[in-house]
Amino acid sequence: MIIYALLGLTLILAFVSLRLIWKAGSRSLRVSYSYLLTGISLASFIYLYGTWVYLSIYADDVFGILALLLLLTGFFRKKQNAAGPSSWRFRANLLLAMLLTGLSVLYFTGTTGSSKVVNLSFPFKKGNYFVLQGGKGLPTNVFHFSLRGAVYAMDIVKLNHFGGRADKVFSKRLSDYEIFGDTLYAPCNGRVVRAYSNNPDNIPPNMKRGPKNTNQVLLETDSTYIFMGHLRMNSVLVKDGEEVVVGQPLACIGNSGFSTEPHLHIQVHRRQEGIPWYLGQPLYIHFNGKGYLLNEVIHNR
């Protein structure tokens, strides 16, 4: 299962980063700084990109605190009289540290340059939500980047009291996922271009590729299209051509279409004449005036 593989990789890399920081703290900085740089850069990378939510987002905080404690205590530990790394390992450490640092910087900046922004109302009521996929293009939004025009698309899940998006790391029972059945509300005023929910919800990890297999609501405003997908079967409350207002219930979250677990997929495009909605200029979404990146929590009070 890909979820177990991703979580396992996160935990392994986290352990390796802590081991490198610990190792660097036992030696003088003169001979260990390549280990230290590699450990810090790897810890930063896995803190930002790690799939901690499959376990709990609080595990990410615990890891960050451990890394800082190891870093600080390293300055006070008794130093061993040990040799530094070999020349090839020294160069490999520095190269890896530079690569990981670059990826950490790109987490915040993305690769799309200056993005055009659209401001929407957050489409859920009270609760803590999580950006499972999102960001400003590569490398954080790599899956959506490969889809037609979805460079700023977001996948959103809901968190339970333990900081997880489900009762288990993986479950075939849809009700175990916190967001399943959650009501989706209109993020803006607009007109319904397309709305249907006759597709069944997938039992994880099964999924059905193809846009017609995704229960969806597509809204249009004077300047944009807003697509919301993976909705629950027979849950859509609006019809094609209907005018909706911000905060109006639209549907419930499900697991239809190209989706391995319940979540909301949302993407926005500029409205341009003569081309399909998904080929219009993609817009970076702000909810209530704030933008969110991969693995960020949306606190909706």
Beta percentage is 15-25%
Q: Going by CATH, what is the homologous superfamily of the largest domain? A: Glucose Permease (Domain IIA)
- Quote the distance from N terminus to C terminus: 34 Å
What's the number of structural domains?
2
- Which percent bin holds the helix content? 25-40%
Largest sheet: 11 strands, mixed
Number of helices: 5
The low-confidence parts are none
The name CATH uses for the topology of the largest domain is Glucose Permease (Domain IIA)
Structural class: alpha+beta
Rounded radius of gyration (Å): 22 Å
Spatial shape: elongated
CATH class group of the largest domain: Mainly Beta
Query: What is the number of beta strands?
Result: 13
Gross CATH architecture of the largest domain: Distorted Sandwich
- Average pLDDT number: 95
**H/E element sequence:** HHHHEEHEEEEEEEEEEE
Write the topology of this structure.
Layout: H1 2-25, H2 29-49, H3 57-74, H4 87-109, E1 117-120, E2 127-133, H5 142-145, E3 154-158, E4 183-185, E5 190-196, E6 216-220, E7 224-229, E8 243-244, E9 249-252, E10 264-270, E11 282-287, E12 290-291, E13 297-300
Parallel strand pairs: 1-11
Antiparallel strand pairs: 2-3, 2-13, 3-10, 4-9, 5-6, 5-8, 6-7, 7-10, 10-11, 11-12
Helix pairs in contact: 1-2, 1-3, 2-3, 2-4
